[in-house]
């Protein structure tokens, strides 16, 4: 790829960014899915049998409620 | 607009990871929080005159995503090169099943998928400037020693002192940014991990946390490290001088089974230096040791418990002694191996937050609307 000057690169990035923003705003206007809320499960590190469309309250847990309750190993 | 290091990361993604060619077709998926990443990659592709289509997605919930994605994908017969799909999200990994369904009709050898979480300038200016080749050599160096060991002693400058035993029934995961047919490359890359058969001692997380729930809390821990005392594979006590962080940990550990150590991980991405404030996989890839509490990284028939939360506590650096070998492994100075990377290890370590009714072995098949299908026709 031909090396660009800093100004040339910034010009291209600005133009493409403006296009992306325009596309994004159009979709956001059409689709109202709501924001992600604090505590929503956003990824998992391995497939799970548990429901993941849940919200975990990270601010109001009762103190001392976290005693281990299951064997660690199968 | 974009600094030199960030632009180098964009070019590294295209050259070293995706290895895009003139006859490829690239589809860029992006959430609103990652529009800049989509724009930078689109600009770089435009400069190379490589066709690119963009698909916006709402994170986690988006009923229209499949239709928008399908309308952007080329017919499989129209491909002369490869279909390269890249997705960018900051906090989430979304729509995994939808993406798998949409790509099921493509020959897996003609399709590469790269999914970035923690999309940001830091992702490109740091983590992505390291190539998969460099990460493979470091992962190999660690794996060749650890996979042959039965016992580890792990210490860090911050005060960690852990005794670990390993068992070959627990598989290793190696995230190194390398693509394979039918697979998904999870970015940022640079980590090896397993499940510790036993683990006990004290762990001091003085770098950052990374939790699988959405939070805008500052993830850095250098000003208020978290000390966790571990017995029989479980956290039995933890301390942190910062009250707010203590309450946050209390909430995390309150979930059933969250006390369990579900992961022992070693970051290998040497371009990750200081921690970034956002809840991020970038921090987890830093050279050093981290423990993942809660959900584990093994098959359900191997490790039986389930947990809705996974919180990584990350230490800066780490020295690992293996069995009776007097020469420890310094995680911040890993000598790259010239040997081939071990085969048949799992490489994906982040998945869309969708529960699955069964587990694939993630190397030979894909989940479609019609069930489990081989990702490549039998020879």
Care to describe what's here?
The complex is a heterodimer of chains A (about 70) and B (about 375). Chain A is mainly α. Helix content of chain A is about 35%, strand content about 0%. Chain A has 1 helix and no strands. Chain B folds into 2 domains: about 5-125 and about 355-375, Cobalt-precorrin-4 Transmethylase, domain 1 (3-Layer(aba) Sandwich); about 130-175 and about 185-330, no CATH class. In chain B, a hairpin with a 5-residue loop joins strand 5 (about 150-155) and strand 6. The longest helix of chain B is centred in the middle third of the chain and has 15 residues, at about 130-145. The radius of gyration of chain B is 20 Å and the shape is globular. The interface between A and B is large, with 60 and 82 residues.
Give me some keywords for this one:
heterodimer; A: mainly alpha; elongated; B: 379 residues; Cobalt-precorrin-4 Transmethylase, domain 1; 2 domains; 7-stranded antiparallel beta sheet; 6-stranded antiparallel beta sheet; 20 strands
Spatially, the strands of the biggest sheet of chain B line up as 13-12-10-6-5-17-18
How many helical stretches of chain B? 8
Instruction: Give the CA-CA distance, first to last residue of chain A.
Output: 54 Å
**Element string of chain A (H = helix, E = strand):** H
- How big a fraction of the residues of chain A is strand? under 5%
Strand residue percentage of chain B = 25-35%
Helix content of chain A: 25-40%
Distance between the ends of chain B: 49 Å
Structural class of chain A: mainly alpha
**Gyration radius over CA of chain A:** 23 Å
Oligomeric state of the chains present here: heterodimer
- pLDDT < 50 runs, ≥5 residues of chain B: 357-379
What's the average pLDDT of chain A?
A: 74
How much helicity do the residues of chain B have?
A: 10-25%
Question: What is the mean predicted local confidence, pLDDT of chain B?
Answer: 92
Largest β-sheet summary of chain A: none
